[in-house]
Amino acid sequence: MNTTKTLGFSDIFKSSFINKFAAVSGLNMIIALGLAFVLGLFIMTVYKKTFKGVLYSSSFGVALMSLTLITTLIILAVTSNVVLSLGMVGALSIVRFRSAIKEPIGIAFLFWAISGGIVLGAGLIPLAIFGSIFIGIIMVLFVNKKSDETPYIMVVNCEGDKCKQDVLSVAMDK
Rounded distance, CA 133 to CA 125, Å? Predict the structure, then answer.
């Protein structure tokens, strides 16, 4: 008695494609991507308001918004399929960023955009919203904080101990 079962075309599609298509609902996807867009706009606005560099790059602001959307999309896809998540980790591990970040605060904005997308994609909407509002307030308060100290570097060419002592006495009086 042979109990071999043959798989038909519909069995293959049923087990792989159709089940995965229904894993993420359309409404959840629209809500997550809509909120990611709004969150990305908020991050981009905070970046623009807190920028203190020489030349503002609008493309970096757009990249922050795009990173939030892309990360949300990736997390939505990964949460529905373990095999896809392993493949995505492998594919993303070879990505190498070649552009230099000019200001250290730019890295904080990049991490904020990526983590906001991750949290939204995972469905933790209140955490994403309140966390981003909190981070935005902290960024605005501390990035634009004016410092009373203005460090200067002074170069003095001295010949002899008398000149050196005169410069040191003036520097210590300040």
Answer: 12
**Helices within the chain (DSSP H only):** 9-13, 19-21, 26-50, 58-78, 82-92, 104-121, 125-143, 161-173
Please tell me which residue, 150 or 18, carries the higher pLDDT value: 150
CA-to-CA dists, residue 120 to 4, 33, 111, 123, 151, angstroms: 46, 8, 14, 5, 42
- For the chain, the farthest-separated pair of C-alpha atoms sits apart, in whole angstroms, at 110
Cβ within 8 Å of residue 77, ≥6 positions away: 24, 84, 88
Task: Give tens-digit pLDDT for 133-172.
Answer: 999 999 999 887 766 666 667 677 777 777 777 777 776 7
For residues 169 and 166, give the distance between their C-alpha atoms in angstroms, rounded to a whole number. Answer: 5
Q: What does pTM read for this prediction?
A: 0.67
